[in-house]
Known about the structure:
By secondary structure, this protein is an alpha+beta fold. The protein has helices at residues 27-36, 70-76; strands at 15-16, 22-23, 81-87, 96-106, 110-114, 121-125, 129-134. It is elongated, with a radius of gyration of 29 Å. It comes from Paenibacillus odorifer. InterPro entries: Spore_coat_GerQ. Pfam families: Spore_GerQ (PF09671).
Amino acid sequence: MIVQPYRPVTYTIGSVSSSGMQMPMSTGMQGMQGMQGMGSMPPQVSSGSPMTPGGVVVQNPPQQFEQSYIENIFRLNLGKVGTFYFTYENNKEWNAKVYKGVLEAAGRDHIIISDPVTGQRTVLLMIYFDYATFDEPLTYQYPGVIGNPPTTRNCR
């Protein structure tokens, strides 16, 4: 087996002729271009910011709101008592379980509730979560709306 040394190659874009065919740059031009670019650093790009083909970073305006994911709704309602319904598949003893307690914390993949009587805390995985009910109004931030919408409605 012959082991060849690693030799990185830099590809450059050539000029385009009037017929639309790409013309490669001469070897001398490629060498000069590579030397001019040495020492320059690529621009700092914040996560999720797009770049144009010319290498300019397009700055997105900062989000003024959180997206409407269940963990964000739970975070807005910490301290409220709720009933949480979970389904556990392939469980012969019990496949559905109901928990009632004070919502203490909410993460991306879990919630922590506590029993108001005993104080016992339970960590519940969101992968098994079905739905929740609350006996009091919820705080809900709708995406794109700054502030909370009015909580009173005319329900007939």
